[in-house]
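User: Please predict structures.

Assistant: First:
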Amino acid sequence: MDAPLHLREIIDLLERRYPPATAEAWDAVGLVVGEPQAPVERVLFAVDPTEEVVAEAAAAGADLLVTHHPLLLRPVNSVAATTPKGRVIHRLISEGIGLYVAHTNADIAAGGVNDALAGLLDLAETRPLVPAPGRALDVLVVYVPEPEAEALREALAAAGAGAVGDYTGCAWSVTGTGEFTPQDGAEPAIGAVGTHERVTERRLEMVVPSGRRDAVTAALRDAHPYEEPAYSFLATHAPSSDVGAGRVGRLEEPTTLRELAAVVAERLPATAGGIRVSGDLDAIITTVAVCGGAGDSYLEAARAAGADVYLTADLRHHRAGEAREEDGAPALIDAAHWATEWPWLPVAARALAGDSGGRVETIVSTRVSDPWTTRLGGAETGGTL
């Protein structure tokens, strides 16, 4: 039976899909509670790190809780158990449960929150509503004796180098002659002190996300046969591709706003607030823009993208009203913040289970942590569905 993966290994798998370097500057993502060497066999995914969710993780025997929303987004002066956040931290530690957060880095990622929301509506030909700037990439150049070149390439790939789209282990290489003279104090793997050596070496080049540079460097030094390997990182940038805020795509078959809103209400997790709709219910909908969580900052982007409707959460009164008056403005579907982000959880859980080779069991919390618990006196003023 395979030994359990360590928390640091789980974090590595998560961060390959949701690189922390892509999070917004104001965000707080990554490991919040946990010992990197602790074994992890079961992981619970949830939107919010509330006391109830932590209790659920403990009851499920989870070793790690992965949430979308940060626990400590703003600075705190105390984590005493007299505060809600303090109680969460104390319970996590006492139960031996780690906490890891993937927030805005999971929002923009391929296969992240917004792709999951678009997938819920079966949107085709999806693209980012607001593409992210090209992610910073380094090109690692390293020289290694030919017999050890393949082993080094594999070690670098395992550390995150050479990932291009859906391909891993990508590299370019050419063979030449390396020359060096070991001096006093050196302990050369090849040759002798004071003797000039010529060795058949391979020049190996692999792309490295900037956030993985330290891990790749450590793997290089560990796997390279030389005492002082020759290597360098060259800075470059990748073009914008499949990452960014929100998503826009088309429905396989046109439908009315009324019918689409009914589908949204059926497929999103139910909350007390339900969903709100603004627009002509008989309007034909072909192109749909979505943004999980608070998305009124992208109203203009949805209009510019030619969307017939924009599905998001937390639309503010004046912003939504002004946006609806603009020429070519999309209809609006406003759902609960929690509900628009929940569809990512089963997607992320399946991804981690697969990435771990089945060595980690993943479960998804269905606990509704939306803060609104009751709705009274709703009025249908713009038509009924």
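Second:
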Amino acid sequence: MEQQKIDMYLVTNAKYFESHLIPHISESLARMDDSRYIVLQSMGLKDPTTILIISILCGSLGIDRFMIGDTGMGIGKLLTCGGFGIWTIVDWFLIQGRTRELNFQKVQRVMM
């Protein structure tokens, strides 16, 4: 894939990934076939900032975990009212990292 496409993808989507993973994504994109680039561009990645806002507003119901695909943890938060509030507060600090991690795993499956 040409460098211009790689740079454009990274500029557009860097907020969805941890910053230390950007060089790895760039290298993987360089090795990737052009036909997969269209699939990669059309992927729906979760915005970590949006998930954080949802976590702050209604994290005790587990909605934030349901949105990122952690169904088991979402059910746990729902049944315990966010771990009696403690789990909810802890998630305010962890949910963005978890969202970025899941986005990276999703992109990695396409690039393989």
